[in-house]
Amino acid sequence: MKGIVVNHATNPTPLVSCLMPTRGNPRLVARAIRGFQLQTWTERELVILTHRRSSQLEALAASDPRIKLYDTPAGLSLGDQRNLRRLWKTQDFRGRMGS
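Predicted structure:
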């Protein structure tokens, strides 16, 4: 990928954080989770950002310890969601998934 530099000498398996902003549609979130779970990179996490938390979303997130569910303020732009630095304390690389 252009612009991505990973020093494999210091970290042979960097953690990849996939950011998934969502409006909370459980069907689409379940589909995205299945896609995430099919990936082969071992060190990965899925960070779901939503302002419409529901028991269905909580159950989907609880299905895999690599999935984290965070509440965001309603109306927060995608750019603002990406800038929630408090979520990015451990990742070495992050990408974005749509739902």
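Summary: The chain has a mean pLDDT of 80.
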